[in-house]
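Design request, C-alpha cells follow.
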C-alpha cells in the first residue's frame, strides 16, 4: 500500500468533491463519494501489460478536517485482487508447460517466476506510490496548501489556530514547497504518468506561485 497526502483549502464536503474529481482526472473510476466517508476508487497504471503497466489498483481518498477552512486528503492505493490472479495464472501456465515438455518448459518457468517477483515488488511499492502521487497531482493547483508530510490534527480540547483566507494561503506558499512540487511533477512526467501537455500546464501554474 502507498500513501500520498495534501492539505487543501475547503471543508470536508469540498475536499471530498475535489478528491473524486482528481481520481477521474487521473483516469480512475469512483465507486463511492459521500462527504464524511472515504472516496473509494479503482485505477490502472497508464500503459500496457507488455511494458509492465496497466496494473490495476484500488484505493481510498480519506478526508480529515485540519481546521475550519482546511482539510487533509490522504490518498492510499493498493493492488487489486485481480493482479494476483494474473500472476498465479502465469505461473500455473508455465508449470503445465514444464510438466508437458520438461526440457523446454523449465526455462520459461524460471523466467516467469523471476519476472513475477520483480513485477509484484514494483507494483506494491514504486508503482503504487506513483499512482497515489498522480491522483494528488490532479488536484486543482489553487486548492493546494502543501504537498509535504501529513499534517496532524490539533489535540482534543484545543482550539485550532486562526486560518488566513484561502487566497492568502496560496499567495504565501514558501518557494521551497513550490520547488518540491516541481520536482515531483518532473518525476511523474519522466515516469509517463503525465503527458507533455499536462506537465507543461501544471508547471506553468506552479511557476506563477514563485
Amino acid at each position: 500500500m502507498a500513501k500520498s497526502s495534501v492539505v487543501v483549502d475547503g471543508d470536508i464536503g469540498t475536499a471530498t468533491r475535489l478528491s473524486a474529481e482528481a481520481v477521474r482526472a487521473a483516469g480512475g473510476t469512483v465507486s463511492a463519494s459521500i462527504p464524511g466517508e472515504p472516496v473509494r476508487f479503482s485505477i490502472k497504471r497508464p500503459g500496457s501489460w507488455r511494458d509492465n503497466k496497466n496494473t490495476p489498483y484500488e484505493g481510498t481518498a480519506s478526508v480529515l478536517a485540519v481546521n475550519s477552512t482546511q482539510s487533509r486528503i490522504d490518498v492510499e492505493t493498493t493492488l487489486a485482487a485481480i493482479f494476483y490472479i494474473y500472476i498465479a495464472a502465469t505461473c500455473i501456465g508455465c508449470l503445465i508447460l514444464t510438466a508437458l515438455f520438461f526440457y523446454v518448459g523449465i526455462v520459461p518457468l524460471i523466467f516467469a517466476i523471476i519476472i513475477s517477483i520483480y513485477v509484484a515488488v514494483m507494483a506494491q511499492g514504486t508503482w503504487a506510490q506513483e499512482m497515489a502521487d498522480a491522483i494528488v497531482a490532479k488536484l486543482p493547483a489553487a486548492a493546494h496548501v502543501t504537498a509535504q508530510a501529513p499534517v496532524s490534527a490539533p489535540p482534543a480540547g484545543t482550539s485550532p489556530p486562526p486560518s488566513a483566507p484561502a487566497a492568502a494561503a496560496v499567495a504565501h506558499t514558501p518557494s521551497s514547497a513550490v520547488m518540491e512540487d516541481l520536482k515531483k511533477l518532473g518525476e511523474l512526467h519522466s515516469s509517463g504518468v503525465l503527458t507533455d501537455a499536462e506537465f507543461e500546464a501544471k508547471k506553468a501554474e506552479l511557476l506563477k506561485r514563485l
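Comment from the thread starter after seeing the answer: thanks! The mean pLDDT is 75.
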